[in-house]
TrEMBL record:
<dbReference type="InterPro" id="IPR014730">
    <property type="entry name" value="ETF_a/b_N"/>
</dbReference>
<protein>
    <submittedName>
        <fullName>Electron transfer flavoprotein alpha/beta-subunit</fullName>
    </submittedName>
</protein>
<feature type="domain" description="Electron transfer flavoprotein alpha/beta-subunit N-terminal">
    <location>
        <begin position="23"/>
        <end position="210"/>
    </location>
</feature>
<dbReference type="GO" id="GO:0009055">
    <property type="term" value="F:electron transfer activity"/>
</dbReference>
<dbReference type="InterPro" id="IPR014729">
    <property type="entry name" value="Rossmann-like_a/b/a_fold"/>
</dbReference>
<comment type="function">
    <text>The electron transfer flavoprotein serves as a specific electron acceptor for other dehydrogenases. It transfers the electrons to the main respiratory chain via ETF-ubiquinone oxidoreductase (ETF dehydrogenase).</text>
</comment>
<dbReference type="InterPro" id="IPR012255">
    <property type="entry name" value="ETF_b"/>
</dbReference>
<comment type="subunit">
    <text>Heterodimer of an alpha and a beta subunit.</text>
</comment>
<dbReference type="Pfam" id="PF01012">
    <property type="entry name" value="ETF"/>
</dbReference>
Length: 258
């Protein structure tokens, strides 16, 4: 099974987050970059499924030239090659635009003899949380689609079995290929790259495209940071003298009964 896994270069937002001057993006000036956790799991699922079916994994990203780092990170853990659609400012591409670009690349690669049985995306990206690209891509390709999926496995006969968590518990689907699946983190643990993998990644083939002019689909207006909630610390006391106050707190939150 040949799999295309779509990833995005996002700022590492483990620390403090501020917005840029436009208010529509994150100020990345002091941040490192990585790929979203959902997409890390998508890469892992792609590698496992391709290994079980004798297939290949190709990573794809739309982003600046530096986004090749994320493609090589995917190769370092087991992907075969990568596709970079270079855009100096990817923030101007709305989810509909991104889906159209990915669809055009898939069609172009098919004409060149490289076809994909399965396309994986993350449920959403860590920086914008759009939750749209997988659905819009499936619509563009006229493929069936599943979202919020945590594990996949080949079930034979040109289909896969996919599992995700729904309101009532685990949901199990059978999906005919070709198809698009949006992956949610939690079903697998992404692997770490080996030294051999890192060396392989430096020499991996990366096909490059120039991004077209973005269309008019659902542009982002602005982002808003959540309100910072004030916090306080109450010192109950020191040593044995703090015990009565601690008991009162435990009773108040219901850990113990009076």
């Amino acid at each position: 099974m040949n799999i295309l896994v779509c990833i995005k270069r996002v700022p590492d937002i483990a620390g403090s987050v501020t917005l840029d001057d436009t208010g529509a993006g994150i100020d990345e000036s002091g941040l490192g970059h990585t790929m979203s956790s959902h997409e890390e799991c998508a890469v892992e699922l792609a590698i496992q499924t391709a290994a079980a079916t004798g297939g290949t994994v190709t990573g794809l990203t739309l982003g600046p030239a530096e986004a090749v780092e994320q493609l090589r990170a995917a190769v370092a853990v087991g992907a075969n090659d990568g596709i970079l659609v270079e855009a100096a400012d990817p923030s101007v591409f709305a989810p509909e635009d991104i889906a159209q670009v990915i669809g055009d690349v898939i069609r172009d690669r098919a004409e060149a003899g490289q076809t994909f049985d399965l396309v994986l995306t993350g449920d959403d990206a860590a920086d914008t949380g759009d939750f749209q690209v997988g659905l819009r891509l499936a619509y563009d390709l006229e493929y069936p689609v599943l979202t919020n999926i945590q594990t996949i496995s080949a079930s034979g006969g040109g289909a896969i079995e996919a599992r995700g968590i729904g309101p009532a518990g685990t949901e199990v689907f059978s999906l005919d290929l070709p198809a698009v699946v949006a992956v949610h983190e939690g079903g697998v643990d992404p692997r770490y790259p080996s030294i051999t993998g890192r060396m392989k990644a430096k020499k991996a083939a990366i096909v490059e495209y120039d991004a077209p002019e973005p269309g008019t689909g659902s542009p982002r207006i602005r982002l808003e940071l959540p309100e910072v909630k004030a916090s306080s610390v109450t010192i109950l006391g020191e040593g044995p003298e703090a015990a009565p106050a601690l008991v009162d707190v435990l009773e108040e939150i219901g850990v113990i009964r009076p």
